[in-house]
Design a protein that fits this description.
This protein has 557 residues and is mainly beta. Among the domains are: 14-35 and 467-556, no CATH class; 252-356, Immunoglobulin-like (Sandwich), CATH 2.60.40. It has five helices and 39 strands. The protein starts with 5 loop residues before the first strand and ends in a 5-residue tail after the last strand.
Length: 557
């Protein structure tokens, strides 16, 4: 990272956490649902044979084909294979109209073999940005959408952006993000054109990318970091650099058991014991090789530094043993914020963890409080960190200097989904913290709370980990519920705790239970895979190839 990048952390608001949350109770209350048949199938992009990596699966296989217009209530859009942009706006569930065509793409999508997924972004209440998947970008003035008198979709700008395939080279490929600024060059000029254009390259499909409302910065959450490609730099050249960077071996490997950590470092050929100094402190380690600092940093947690040792093995590697102060605590990383090492997982460690998921979702509405159903205890559950995908980072880039200004290493805070709470702000993102799922609202820099913790979904980080077939994850903009769907049919709804009409008494803890968090399950009558999923405050919209389903979740007063 650039020397200016500040290493930041996300500040959790304690009052938004509920340490005594007792899990979700299954409610059998029926959820009203409605089904609409589509005139033409959704313009789905199937994976080609050469798109076999996990990253391709993330980019195409998990693409959400249903788009929500957050400027208007309960208004969703999809693109069908006739190139039509279809809109459904719901006023009354019992009197649903057919989805209506609002715009037709001039290009015939089916003629392109290697197109990407077409997408729509609702930039403001009267502007829409549209990418047709063939490399063409449209800026459309719509008037007030949903108002018959003033709504009219007109192309204000359209241009073929230079197509960059996600370049293949061996198994290496990179993802290209383009940041384009479009405006009228002169005030008297009617024509919109590109006035600024930057390209970023990274090695993984970003989980999240958003431009700050005033256009001054860009935020990206991704597993591999992104960097700006300098103007005029040969793409091949930067690709070769990226490749060599990818092949670089980790600086160290580490393993852990309940009570100790073992770190292995490969040494240069001719190293002797005299070349090496290792300094152990309770929460810090420093390795010096031939007078140069080789590895230094703050340990994730404390160690018994007096019992820690090191030896040189026959295969010219340095082996360090660290004794954990907190036995049984699973470390998600060895050094805070350090990505130069690789954790080697032991399958035996993973074995007994899944069972701990069970008490968080109950099969009955009012389970017997005497039964063993303890509240979620984060300490006891920390071993579930072993399940995490590799850690991602959250970066903010400055729009003028193109440098990284802030970095948050997300460590074990797995990225779950994003949601637009206020369309004038950047989308929020939801991360897993211990057992919970926490919602963060990014703000334009610079300010103290650049990422503000605005809501918590209790135990949801843990519950979603048990759903092996999950495809989409969402929550309502007022965070009254979260929902996830599987690839086929099933939709799970998790509501925030609400006061109960009758108070239960938990005899085990000798206290009253005044509220309950309900879990509901809906099953769609279809055998088609789910292609799109959007949540509004009142409804869930689920899109399949030929149908659009509505599930009424809340009845607003």
């Amino acid at each position: 990272m650039m020397e200016v990048a500040a290493n930041c952390s996300l500040r959790v608001k304690r009052p938004l956490l509920d340490p005594r949350f007792e899990g979700y109770k299954l409610s059998l209350e029926p959820l009203p649902s409605y089904q609409l048949e589509l005139d033409a199938a959704v313009a789905e992009v199937k994976l080609r044979d050469d798109q076999y990596t996990l990253e391709h699966m993330h980019a195409f296989g998990m693409y959400n084909y249903l788009h929500c217009d957050s400027w208007y209530q309960d208004s969703v859009y999809y693109i069908d294979n006739l190139g039509r942009i279809m809109n459904l706006k719901v006023m009354l569930d019992t009197a649903l109209g057919k989805p209506r065509e609002v715009f037709r793409l001039p290009t015939d999508l089916t003629a392109y073999d290697n197109r990407l997924c077409a997408s729509i972004h609702f930039t403001s209440s009267t502007w829409v940005t549209l990418s047709d998947g063939t490399g063409r970008l449209y800026l459309i003035g719509t008037g007030e959408r949903g108002n018959g008198a003033s709504e009219k979709w007109e192309i204000m700008f359209n241009e073929e952006l230079e197509k960059e395939e996600s370049h293949m080279k061996g198994s290496g490929f990179y993802v290209s993000l383009e940041w384009v600024t479009i405006s009228k060059k002169n005030t008297d000029n009617k024509k919109y054109e590109i006035v600024k254009r930057y390209v970023l390259h990274g090695k993984s499909v970003p989980h999240y990318a958003a431009i700050e409302p005033d256009g001054s910065g860009l935020m990206i959450v991704s597993y591999k970091s992104f960097t700006f490609v300098p103007d005029g730099q040969d793409i091949e050249e930067s690709k070769d650099e990226n490749m060599s960077e990818k092949i670089k071996e980790p600086l160290y490997y580490w393993q852990q058991t309940e009570d100790e950590l073992t770190v292995t470092v490969r040494l240069p050929e001719d190293s002797t014991k005299q070349d090496i100094q290792v300094q152990f402190l309770p929460d810090h380690i420093n390795i010096v090789l031939k007078g140069q600092s080789f590895l230094e940093g703050n340990l994730y947690s404390s160690v018994d530094h007096e019992s820690s040792t090191w030896i040189i093995k026959e295969n010219n590697s340095l082996e360090i043993s660290l004794i954990k102060k907190n036995e049984g605590l699973t470390w998600p990383e060895l050094l805070v914020g350090d990505k130069q090492g690789e954790l080697i997982r032991d399958s035996a460690q993973c074995a007994a963890i899944a069972e701990r998921l069970m008490h968080l979702t109950s099969e009955e509405l009012n389970p017997n409080p005497d039964k063993e159903k303890p509240p979620c205890n984060a300490q006891e559950l920390e071993e579930c960190d072993i399940f995490f995908e590799e850690s991602s980072s959250l970066c903010r880039f400055d729009g003028n200097t193109l440098k990284t200004t802030h970095v948050v290493n997300l460590g074990s805070n797995q990225y779950l989904f994003s949601v637009v709470v206020d369309p004038k702000d950047m989308p929020c993102f939801c991360l897993r913290h211990d057992v919970d799922a926490l919602l963060w609202q990014p703000h334009s820099s610079p300010r103290d709370d650049m990422w503000e913790h605005i809501a918590t979904f209790n135990a949801l980080g843990y519950v979603q980990a048990s759903k092996r077939d999950k495809k989409f994850f969402a929550c309502s903009p007022n965070y009254s519920y979260a929902a996830l769907c599987e690839c086929l049919r099933r939709v799970f709804i998790y509501r925030q705790p609400t006061p109960m009409s009758t108070v239960l008494y938990n005899r085990k803890e000798g206290r009253q239970v005044g509220q309950v968090a309900k879990q509901q399950v809906a099953s769609l009558e279809t055998n088609e895979p789910i292609l799109g999923f959007q949540a509004t405050n009142e409804r869930l919209f689920v899109l399949t190839t030929k149908n659009l389903f509505l599930i009424k979740v809340n009845t607003e007063n």
